[in-house]
Amino acid sequence: MKQPPSSEEIYNDIVNKIISLELKPGEKISENKMCMEYNVSRSVIRNVFARLNQINLIEVFPQRGTFVNRIDLDYIHTVLVMRLAIEKEMITRFMKLEDKEKTLKKLRENLDKQKKYKDMETYIDEFKKLDEEFHELIMLSVEKYNIMDLMNEHLIHISRWRNFSVNLEGRVHELVEEHERILEGMEKGDLNYTLTSITEHLETVSGIVNLLLTSYKDYLSK
Known about the structure:
single chain; mainly alpha; Arc Repressor Mutant, subunit A; Four Helix Bundle (Hemerythrin (Met), subunit A); three-stranded antiparallel β-sheet; about 65% helix; globular
């Protein structure tokens, strides 16, 4: 007989469902339904829900139930500003390195793989991994550890936003082109061009605010 999943496995699975929008912003989720789905006790699900609540992915309303938290655009904008500041600093440090060729080669190989997904309409896992790896390669070229790991809790919300915004506009081809411009700037040693390109790449809120407010208002926090 198959063993029920562990609390950690359930937690990760629900996080992934929220990030991928399988569980939509504002959607009600049931303790009883989760118990049946994962074949575990209520205490296990309550512990998982407590962890999800702690990182603001869900909210529990007494007498009303438990709901997936809606997207807070102000929070997303703030975290993107933090991420942009980090990435610009990493690029600035990269440009001062004497030996850049190994990293540039890995970035070019990564980008060549990305181009296979350029015509995709959705932000599928295979492309998402390449997207994340592209940025990680830049980080690890100047730091022993990926500094983004320190923002892990915040990046969960950014991952959900990324899935939503990219799929909303079918932006996969644009992401590839933006990565191309970032890499071109790095290859040419043009710091200003590279910093401008990374800014355009990460600033994803303002361009679609009107669309969100008209067509996806229910996904947004008040």
